[in-house]
Amino acid sequence: MGLHGMAGKVAIAQMEDMRGIKTMLRVYNGEQKGATAFFRNRPLLQTLSNLLQEYPSRKIRILFHAVSVGAEVYSFAIWAMMQGLHQRFDLEFFATDINQNFLDFARAARYPSVVLQTMTPEEKAYFEDAGNGEVTPLETVRSLVRFLPAMSYLEPLDEGVFDIVFVLNALTYVTEVQQAEAISQIAGYNSRYLVISAFHPDAIEAHLQQEGYTPVLDNIEDIHSGWHERIRSDIAATRGTDAYSWALRPFSRTEDYQYKLCAIFERNATA
Prior knowledge:
By secondary structure, the protein is α/β, with parallel strands linked by helices. The protein has helices spanning 42-52, 71-82, 85-88, 100-108, 121-124, 139-142, 176-187, 201-210, 220-226, 242-246, 257-260, and strands spanning 2-5, 8-17, 20-29, 32-36, 59-64, 90-95, 111-112, 127-131, 134-137, 145-147, 162-168, 190-196, 213-215, 264-267.
């Protein structure tokens, strides 16, 4: 099944395992490609929502790098509304991507209706029919998100300070040296939480510690298991291969798990 639009071809694939079916949006446009999904990791969204319940600031600014066609930013905006955070805080969501066509698609926010199949009734309530077999998030959701000009997370950003910055799996597309540069760059405008789901594992601890980040271990196993389509017990990944930073080993509390298997990191106020 596929959809043609401003972002090129968006193909739909359903992945099923013991945790159920996850509807993925496979995105292609020129040299850029990617995979995304609505509510891709609910334990991650729930944990972040929990962390924000007692946040000390009234205003919370959230940035998504490498947002692709927008599913991740709309998912967290919806989840924040479901948890009532929009009633207690002034929430601002920002999103960007290196591909302008992806951003155009995300701003238009018209998705094949098949994405609803794996949502809960509460999640579905935040979408409406857009015609032509498509759905779109409600205006109350879309209005929370501001799309920035196309850019890489390796570039400087002058949009103020963000309480949360999402990079998710985008660090897999750069070298270890560029990973260090990216984290250093982001630390300059990130005051509290950094969310990353794939990276160069042997270097990530040093790169994060250098900028004052420490792992948030709340629900770490559930969050790790939430990336179930990437967990591979049959891949002997070696440095320099695509699978080395993308594929995840099954969860275990080995000596290095706190950094290599974590997704949420908190920046020290004095860093």
